[in-house]
Amino acid sequence: MGLVRYYSFVEVFMSRRVLWLVIVSVALFSPFRLSGLSAADDPLLSWNEGQSKRAIVAFVTKVTREGADFLPVPQRIAVVDNDGTLWSEQPMYVQLAFALDRVKLLADRHPEWRQTQPFKGVLEGDLASVAATGEKGVMEVIGATHAGMTADEFSEIVSAWLETARHPRFHRPYTECVYQPMLELMKYLRDNGFQTYIVSGGGVEFIRVFAGKTYGVPPQQVIGSTIKTKYEVRDGVPVIVRLPELNFLCDKAGKPVELQRIIGTRPVMAFGNSDGDFEMLEYTTSGSGPRFGLIVHHTDAERESAYDRLSFFGRLDRGLKEGPKRGWTIVSMKDDWKQIFPETGK
Questions:
Q1: What's the predicted TM-score (pTM) here?
Q2: In a 10 Å sphere around its CB, with 0-12 CB exposed, 13-18 middle and 19+ buried, how is residue 231 labelled?
Q3: What are the backbone angles phi and psi of residue 285, rounded to the nearest 5°?
Q4: Domain ranges in the chain?
Q5: Which CATH class is domain 51-91+178-336?
Q6: Could you report the per-residue pLDDT of 107-117, keeping only the tens digit for each?
Q7: What tens digit of pLDDT does each residue of 289-323 get?
């Protein structure tokens, strides 16, 4: 064999060897190989390969396999915020859109609203005037739109509204403005023995209407803000009547309080998107043993929205500053998600 032919042979051999090593390395050391899954079976298809996806898979793998970090199934509890974490919260919280629509629907029964704040502001589209009325004004709107009916009647009203209401930008039902990557994540967790709880500052009875069908989360695993209720017997039928008074606000420091009261143990995984979720992530990740915290950062103005520190809804400041120091995973919607909503390819 001539010298030139010899070196050509070596070059070809080495290039194929390097290619083979690359292929084997990818096959052996990809995160889903480590978790026992092939790429074809990837349960997080809407996630781009990267640090965020690897961190999720690595954590789930280590707590579900025998070893020092193994967690028995009863301890596998994950808590997930709703607004901005599971579905869109811009240009306003969905439940607020519901309340505003209810004011307009009921306005003919209350002619005095056209001269009285905060209802006057709602009817005129002047949300700055509504905001100026503060918590008292908000509770008036909640009382007028969320109370005075039975729990069953309220569920029917919410269900009917969700059937017809559309997101002002995406022109699709709000229940289709949910994040495909988070739907996949929750299913992935449940497939690995986790219980997934929704923990929201929104009304618990509002979210329970659609949580099962939309998220696969049963009503008893939805935790949220509540208004006061009372028991009555109407025409021989026992009912729960909703009252126009706040019972508990499940936001910020209120979230860990409700976690302990309802679940009775500290979760091991927590997912949020705003500073309203900070205490929930802090409480979850401060426990002993393996812990995981994740923040969804809205960075995609083209496909969804881009906002953080200056946003009125879903403000994220402290989480961005302190999250990385605490070992929390910060997910960039633009960089980490191939797709935002289901069935759109966006």
A1: 0.88
A2: exposed
A3: -85, -5
A4: 51-91+178-336
A5: alpha beta
A6: 999 999 999 99
A7: 999 999 999 999 999 999 999 999 999 999 999 99
